[in-house]
Amino acid sequence: MAEISIDKSTRGAQLSIKGKPLIQLSPQEMLDLSEDLRSFVMNNAATMPEVPLRSISVGDTAFKVDATDKPEFWRSVNDGLWEPETYEVFDRFIDADTVFLDVGAWIGSTALYAAQTAKETHAFEPDPVAFDQLKKNTDANNGEDWHENISLHPEAVAPENGTMTMGSRAEAGDSMSSALLGDDTDAWKVKTTALGDFLNEKSLKGEKLFLKIDIEGGEYKLIPAIKDLLKRENCAVYLSLHPEFLLEHLRSEVSGPLKEFKVRRLFWKRHYRLLRSLPFKHVTHTNGKPVNRFKSLTKALLLAEFTHSIVASNG
């Protein structure tokens, strides 16, 4: 194979093969060439013998991902623009003694980060398209010492074992797949796993647990169902809520006179039940400020609004 080298300077670059100058490139030509090459790789990656990878850095933590999938999203992660508060919460609660359960892992932006600190990481993703990409991104880090700490599960954590129907407004893999959209045209059946059974199977009941739950509206059924499992000192939860999905679902289910009043009442009731099902000493926003339950529930009833993130812990 020919030895190719690029001698760079602020005036341009010189491409050489086996030490012999081949071509001189101006800064504009360098930029055009890099964009042309990138476009070529993106458009032809499916026919290439190996997946081109991109290194993503979040603070001092780095991991590799498939460079051809969702490049704009990964650019925002690498630039520190995607949910920096999420990574801050992880840094507060995850250490070498923690078993991390990533419930709704999507394509790996949280699992690949946490796996480098946690004792074990279990990533659940029932969307088959997203799971396939999650696996590719995880496999991209094969050989790293933390790679063996992460396990992937193509199923949904739910109140009980069985199956459920999920759907998406756009297409599978778009990060918005939800059980609340199971009646949509683009829907599919997924396997479900009860959290208690999973913890027993993996002998994790005595472990220090941190759960990130981001399941696009499914949290309103899941949290009340697992409240007894959360009654332990060594457990914390980072919960992403999707009140807009719940509101849309309720409005599609409720009909008749006083429809909006009934919707608001049910919206309030779901959030009241959810808050009552968090058996923790501290229930806060991501910035650490306590959630005022009275104000939050009043806002839910009067305005049909609710916070999108909750951190619940005993420490």
Entry summary:
The chain has 315 residues and is α/β, with parallel strands linked by helices.
SSE inventory with pairings:
Blueprint: E1 4-9, E2 12-17, E3 20-25, H1 27-44, E4 53-58, E5 61-66, H2 71-78, H3 84-93, E6 98-103, H4 111-114, E7 120-124, H5 128-139, E8 150-153, E9 156-158, E10 162-167, E11 187-194, H6 195-201, E12 208-213, H7 219-225, E13 235-240, H8 243-253, H9 259-276, E14 282-284, H10 293-303, E15 309-313
Parallel strand pairs: 6-7, 6-12, 7-8, 9-11, 12-13
Antiparallel strand pairs: 1-2, 2-3, 4-5, 10-11, 13-15, 14-15
Q: Summarize the biggest pleated sheet.
A: 7 strands, mixed
Low-confidence stretches: none
Q: What's the total helix number?
A: 10
Major beta sheet, strand line-up: 8-7-6-12-13-15-14
The overall strand count is 15
Mean pLDDT metric: 90
Rg of Cα set: 23 Å
- Give the CATH level 1 class of the largest domain: Alpha Beta
Q: What structural class should be given to the helix and strand makeup?
A: alpha/beta
Q: How many domain modules?
A: 2
Q: What is the helix/strand order?
A: EEEHEEHHEHEHEEEEHEHEHHEHE
Fraction in helix? 25-40%
Overall geometry: elongated
Distance between the termini: 58 Å
CATH superfamily of the largest domain: Vaccinia Virus protein VP39
The CATH architecture term of the largest domain is 3-Layer(aba) Sandwich
